[in-house]
Every structure is written in structure tokens, then in C-alpha cells.
Structure prediction request, 514 residues.
Amino acid sequence: MSPAAVPTIRCGERTREQPLAHERAGRLAATLTARGIGRGDRVAVMLRNDIEFLEVSLAIAACGANPVPINTRWQPPEIAHVLADGGVGIVLAHTTFIDTVERAIELAAVTPLVVEVAMPVELLDEAGLDRAAATPTGRYPTLEEWIDDSDAPLGHVAGAIADSMGLIYTSGTTGTPKGVLRERMTPQQLLAVAGGTAQRMGLAPGARMLVAGPLYHTSPNAVAVLALRMGADITIMPRWDSLRFLRLVAERRITQAKVVPTMLSRLLSVPAEIRSRYDVSSLTHLIHSAAPCPPAVKRAAIDWFGDALIEFYGCTEAGTITWITATEWLAHPGSVGRGVDGSAAVVATADGIPLPPGEIGQVFVRGADYWPAFRYLGRDGESTGPMPGFLTVGDTGYLDEDGYLYLTGRSSEIIISGGVNIYPAEIESALLEFDGVEDVAVFGIPHPGDLGEAVAAHIVPRPGARLDAAELRDGLRQRLAGYKIPGELRIVTELPRDDSGKVYKRQLQALYQP
Prediction:
């Protein structure tokens, strides 16, 4: 019998055996500890997708410190907010981000240590960046120097994992990112969270995971770190590419991947004859979340991936709330599922009065039985609301008779035209039913008359498709009431989405401000 294969981490053409990655992370943890980093301290991580991202995450957690991933698209003022708000003591950043980090530090008026991480040439080529960034600036110690500073990995620190999960920031898509301070989890809670996540996401020793999204986002990060702890084989995509995703799934017989609806839509833009060349039957868990999935996209994805397609809805504050399988979705099309493990979703008025099935209102959620309590960093009392034990993060929706939740958007995105509430998600779903439509954003803009707001839509065509605004409007009139038809409808090449699939609608609305 041949020995079991040693699990690896791959990114591009680079491969590292996981025992070596754990050993490097342990030595970095020893150096961090020697520099005074310990329980509850915050360490910012501004890295592109790469093997070192996971090593750094493990090392910080091994000290009991909180890893604070930084969105690589953020500008200095956004980074400065997190550095100051979180009291960050160390920043580990790829050489390409050093200048940005320095400007952020100056704006934040803080003095964290900076550790530089050189980027492999192939990743620089992938991102279209100057190969000179493969050479560190020389202004700061490097990651490799800090790893080499310790001869042996840090020993076990009791309770370090629980301590490392104490702070996480929201994405900041609709405003300034909030620091979510979690109550320290007990060993039983940690086991329940890890066990529930692994079971529902298809993670186990021997699993083959593909990281398709950016590791600075909570969900891909948390799932990848858990997979690494469990000894699952991990492949990291340096950046999203539909054909590369399909190739990697087929070649490496990937069993688990986490995507967002935008990725599903772009996969469906690949011509059918090309899609058929790639065997995706190894996938047992193709998980999606982060944004509502338009029914047309979901239905086509189920036709392709079958029972492997699984969806969840959740938030930073309360974890995953609802889950739904492909079979359940076909029985409840458009739903994001029902609560599990004691989690729940209730639809109510803004004052917390529950609404009957089918009536749209504010979505209030409660985490699973094992999920820790939280508060917002520097915003005591903000997590409380009109429904004891429940919180809202601004989503709107409704429940059906069976308790399945349907999302209609965010309360901040509701368009009020002539006193009538218009829900963008309904119009987006209708537009995505048209052949040739790959992506859509519907939002409110100032009305030139006295109606308050008007409906606008930006639409991205699938490659090779030709769309006509007048034809789209005519088609919508067969499906929607007249007041929901976008008065402003533009065909565009792309939408300003973050890598978790959320649209920066404020940027689109800014185009129409007088």
C-alpha cells in the first residue's frame, strides 16, 4: 500500500507541503511572540492571495492575536480607519502595498511595526505589476527574516485559537467597516463552530479545496484556514478567472469551492461547448453566499452542478444563519433557506413587530446556539435593537409559509418613488432572465420632477452579446409594473463590485448627483 499523499498548498505554479507551512507559521509565531505580540493584540495582513497568507494567518492565531485582513483595494484613508480603530500593532504587507500602508499609517497617526512580504514574480505578472516588486524595499524587515529569526516553532499556547477569533471587521460595502468584538468562545463553542462549518461545507482530511475568492474576505479566509487545520489539500487562485476555475476543478479533482453569485454568472457566460470540456463531477460542495443569487442564475447553476450547489446566508455579527440545498431551492425558488442549529430569521417592522408570511419587512437574525455574543468596537449599545436576542444588518425580505427566507435587498437601497417602495432585487432578477445579460445593478437616483427617486439600471452583457436598452424595457413591461421599469438604463462593461460580489451602489448613484 502506498503512503498517503502529503497535503499541499498550491498557488499558481508554487506548491508547499502543509507540514512545512505549519513549521514556518510556528517559527513566525515565535518571532511575533518575541516582539511582544500576544493575546488579543491586532496584526493587520495586507496580502494578495498566496501561500504566505495562510501561513501568516496561522502564525498570528498561534499567538492568540487577532489577524485583521485588509482589503487590497482599499485606499489609505480606509486602511487608516482600521489601523487606528483596531489599535493595530504590526502590519504585514506585500511589497506592492508598502507605499499605501505608509500613507495610511501617516493618516492614522499610529506607529505599528511593518513587515514586508516579497511577491513571487509569477504573481506580479498575474496582476500586471512591475517585477521590481519582487525585491523588497529594504525599509523594513521581511517575512522570511522574521521566520528565520526563530530556530523552533512556538509551542502550544492554551486558549490561543479562542483569543485569535475575538475581532473581525465587516466588509464596509455600505459604510465604514465596523469592528465586531466577539465574546471569547469556550472549547465547546469552538468545536461546535468548526464541526458545523466543516460538515456543511464538505471539509475533511483528504478533501480538495479550491480558494476562488480573495483571502482578505471573511468567508474564504475562515474556510481556508479551517481546511488547512484539517489537512485538506488546498489550491489558491491568485485571482478569479472562469476558465482557470473550470480547469483547476477538472485537473485537480476539486471537491469543495466557495464562490459568490457573480462568479456563478461569469461561469455561465462560458460558452456551453467550452464548458463541456471540463469535468466538474468531483465537486460535492460548491458553496455560494455573500449576495442574493438571481433565480435565473441559480436555476442554470443547479442544472449544471446539481446537488453540489449549496447556499447560505449570514453576517459577520451572527455567523451563518440559513442554509439551503439545491433540492430545497427548487421547491422554494429564490429562497436563501431556513435557520440551522438554533439560528433563526424573523421578518418584522422596524419596531420589531413580526410580519405575516409573504409581507416584506426588516430581516432580524439570531446566531446558532453555539455562536458567541458580540459588541461593536467603540460603539457600545449599537448591537441592541427592538427584538431581544435578534439583530439586523439592514437586509429586507420575507418568509414563506414554511419559514424559508427570501431577501429583497437592503433597507438603505429601497427606492421610494412617489411614496411607493421599489425593491431593486426584483428588477435585477427580472433583467437577468434575459438572454445575454451577465450582471445587473438597480438603484435609485434623483427624480427630475416631484417623485423623489427614479429607477436606474446598469447592465453588463455576456461576452459577445448585443443588448438594446429599448428592447430590455419592452421585455420588462411584460413582467413588471410600469413604475418599476428603469427610466435610466445603461449598457456598461462592468459594475463596481467588491470581490465578495457586493455592488458599491453608492459609486453608481454618485454618477447621477447634480
About this structure: Residues 18-34 form the longest helix (17 residues). The CA atoms of residues 176 and 476 lie 35 Å apart. The two ends are 73 Å apart (CA to CA). The first strand starts at residue 8 and ends at 11.
